[in-house]
From TrEMBL:
Residues 87-99 have a biased composition (Polar residues). GO terms for biological process: L-glutamate catabolic process. Belongs to the Glu/Leu/Phe/Val dehydrogenases family. It catalyses: L-glutamate + NAD(+) + H2O = 2-oxoglutarate + NH4(+) + NADH + H(+); L-glutamate + NADP(+) + H2O = 2-oxoglutarate + NH4(+) + NADPH + H(+). It comes from Cyanidium caldarium. This is glutamate dehydrogenase [NAD(P)(+)]. Residues 49-66 have a biased composition (Low complexity).
Length: 628
């Protein structure tokens, strides 16, 4: 363990010995592995370090002007700044999975770099720069600001897994815990080849500020496993997930009161179920053990509404910003107030993108004009736009490819039309139309979709997609940050310059506010798990009876209610209704607080959200003091 000011970095090289290999070979929990974990979990690896009386503010990040933004982030080879990165200690050569991952990333970045020759800073530097700019709007002391900004703990480790072909492979993984001012720390687990130290630290910092923005009582964390999940079968993915969980257990980096993971890019309910099951195997005496992770399947203690929460929160957030006449005026929002009738482009139809698109269309009456995925993008020129559910179904059938969607729909509609002509019944998917909406598939670089003419652009895949290189070509009136960090500091600086020049710039609804629905409902799930009771279970029927009595009184006084109103009035709130109500309230409050601060400080919503959260965290330190 080494301490550097307020920052504690813990790293352990993997114990790549025969015993670990045998444990992995046996499909994970062999008795020897269990014994090893038991032994290691008794070691003390304290990760809660509020002590920071000697915290010094970190120096400003390199490249401090928009013009000096560094090269497009090469997440693998970007040189670490010496003041922040202690010498890497590992006890083995670079794992083969990391080498393969590196090759894949370099390949992907080649296309990206060809697109944007501008120099750009890393993700973490970008987050740090936003923090620094926002900090100037607060009256927090430089020393405390330094403490709030730094990542407290970084775990980096490797572990072996046995592939189905009998080969042993080393996997690299991370967990960053950015702040322990509130416990547990909280944040998702990402499975992707681009996962790196810089990325998890940036994402963990965003979690800290996001939780403060929506008043969710957690510190920020984020984890990641460096794999291309498409290259592993389900058995291998389960082994990786379970072994990763054990590596967290042995470092005291998972637990209901310590650190609570959740889904992120490349993971979902399934992985959270495996993590929970693994954690439980080692903590049977802990009555709160299922609160060790959120985003679980409902039958394993998950909560209704978590899967769609981030996307629904995105819709609520956009709706709330666009409902404000002063926002519409300040950013000259095309087509004026409201979501209805707006043209929307979505990048990434995963968990967040799908639900965001669905709610924008179904609840907001927006038109989804384009959807981008890895292999290209779909553009619709019809009045009704794209139906995200149909596109998602196609992606599921093709293993994630948009290619073939147009032909597939044509065939579907053709069959339905023929069936209808023969007097046969039509299916639910085809009753609404008998001709295929004019949809075009544009193969190739999905990033081109970001530059399409639209009202609302929803990047819902990865960070850094709107950068200094393509920012001048973005035509959207609103950029709704469903992903974490999709707009770089360089791009943001470009848009701010536009403002100074009196040119219209997009309203950027920042990630700290807009995608906070996920962690908000994770908080509800955690509370549900600690309470050991489903929300609404004790109240729904009594609410129904009370409302029935009220309706009876109204009817006795001659008030006639329509059947639909009667149903609505008498429905007691179940878990889904309560979760959505809590989510909507949280999002509305966050937008209100953010926009109020933006007006007071004369800044954009991003800096307003950062500065509000910095103030809240500083207030926590002010009242709790600094240990010891
Ligand atoms: N899940 C959550 O609750 C939350 C997630 N977020 C953030 O939202 C973002 C998305 O997360 P999530 O939806 O969970 O992840 P998913 O893995 O569910 O979905 C991501 C989608 O984006 C696609 N994609 C990848 N690269 C590109 C590209 N270049 N162009 C277009 N599409 C692409 C992926 O395709 P493929 O499957 O082929 O890789 C996948 O369909 C991340 O930034 C995450 O941190 C934020 C808050 C909460
Ligand atoms: O649900 C959670 O706890 C975390 C969600 C997350 O990772 C995020 O908001 O980026």
């Amino acid at each position: 363990m080494c301490t550097m000011g307020c920052r504690l970095i813990q790293r352990w090289g993997a114990v790549v010995d025969r015993r670990a290999a045998t444990a992995a070979a046996s499909g994970f929990i062999s008795s020897s592995a269990a014994a090893a974990v038991r032994q290691l979990s008794t070691e003390t690896h304290p990760i809660h370090h509020p002590a920071a009386a000697s915290a010094k503010p970190s120096p400003p990040a390199a490249g401090t002007s928009p013009e000096s933004v560094a090269e497009v982030p090469d997440v693998l080879s970007a040189p670490p700044s010496p003041d922040k990165q202690p010498t890497r200690v590992t006890n083995h050569d670079i794992p083969s999975s990391t080498e393969r991952a590196a090759a894949t990333v370099r390949e992907a970045l080649r296309g990206h770099k060809a697109q944007s020759p501008m120099r750009e800073m890393t993700f973490l530097e970008s987050v740090d720069r936003f923090f620094d700019d926002a900090a100037k709007l607060t009256h927090v002391s430089p020393a405390l600001l330094g403490h709030i900004k730094e990542c407290n703990t970084l775990l980096e480790f490797t572990f072996p897994i046995l592939r189905s072909n009998g080969q042993i492979e080393l996997i690299r993984a991370y967990r960053a815990q950015h702040s322990h001012h509130r416990l547990p720390t909280k944040g998702g687990i990402r499975y992707d080849v681009r996962v790196s130290e810089d990325e998890v630290k940036a994402l963990a910092a965003l979690m800290t500020f996001k939780c403060a923005t929506v008043d969710v009582p957690f510190g920020g964390a984020k984890g990641g496993v460096v794999i291309d999940r498409t290259k592993y079968n389900d058995v291998e993915l389960e082994r990786i997930t379970r072994r990763f969980t054990v590596e967290l257990i042995r470092r005291n980096a998972i637990g209901p009161s310590l650190d609570v993971p959740a889904p992120d890019y490349g993971t979902g309910q399934r992985e959270m179920g495996w993590m929970k099951d693994t954690y439980e195997a080692f903590h049977q005496k802990d009555i709160d053990r299922i609160a060790c992770v959120t985003g679980k399947p409902i039958n394993l203690g998950g909560i209704r509404g978590r899967e769609s929460a981030t996307g629904l929160g995105v819709y609520y957030g956009v709706r709330e910003f666009l409902a404000r006449p002063d926002v519409v005026q300040a950013y000259s929002i095309r087509k004026g107030a409201g979501v209805a009738g707006k043209d929307v482009v979505v990048q990434g139809l995963g968990n967040v993108g799908f639900w965001a698109a669905k709610f924008m269309r179904d609840m907001g009456q927006a038109r989804i004009v384009a959807i981008a995925e890895r292999d290209g993008y779909l553009v619709s020129r019809s009045d009704e736009g794209l139906d995200p559910t149909q596109v998602k179904r196609h992606l599921a059938a093709t293993g994630g490819e948009l290619r073939g969607y147009v032909e597939h729909r044509q065939a579907e509609v053709g069959v339905a039309t023929a069936a209808a002509a023969m007097g046969g019944s039509t299916t639910a998917t085809t009753t609404t139309t008998d001709t295929v909406a004019p949809v075009e598939f544009v193969p190739g670089n999905p990033a081109e979709a970001l530059e399409l003419d639209c009202d609302i652009l929803i990047p819902a895949a990865l960070e850094g997609v709107i950068h200094a290189g393509n920012a001048p070509r973005i035509r959207a009136s609103v950029i709704a940050e469903a992903a974490n960090g999709p707009v770089t500091y360089g791009a943001d600086a470009h848009f701010r310059t536009q403002r100074q020049l009196g040119v219209d710039r997009p309203l950027i609804i920042p990630d700290l506010v807009l995608n906070a629905g996920g962690v908000t409902v994770s908080y509800f799930e955690w509370v549900k798990n600690l309470g050991h009771l489903r929300f609404g279970r004790m109240t729904r029927r009594i609410e129904e009876k009370t409302m029935r009595a009220v309706v009876d009184v109204l009817e006795r006084h001659g008030v006639k209610l329509a059947a639909r109103d009667l149903l609505d009035l008498q429905a007691g709130a179940d878990e889904t209704a309560l979760v959505r109500s809590g989510l909507e309230d949280t999002m509305c409050t966050a937008v209100e607080e953010t926009w109020t601060a933006a007006k007071q400080s004369g800044c954009d919503p991003r800096l307003a959200a950062y500065s509000n959260s910095i103030r809240k965290i500083a207030e926590d330190y002010g009242t709790s003091g600094i240990f010891p």
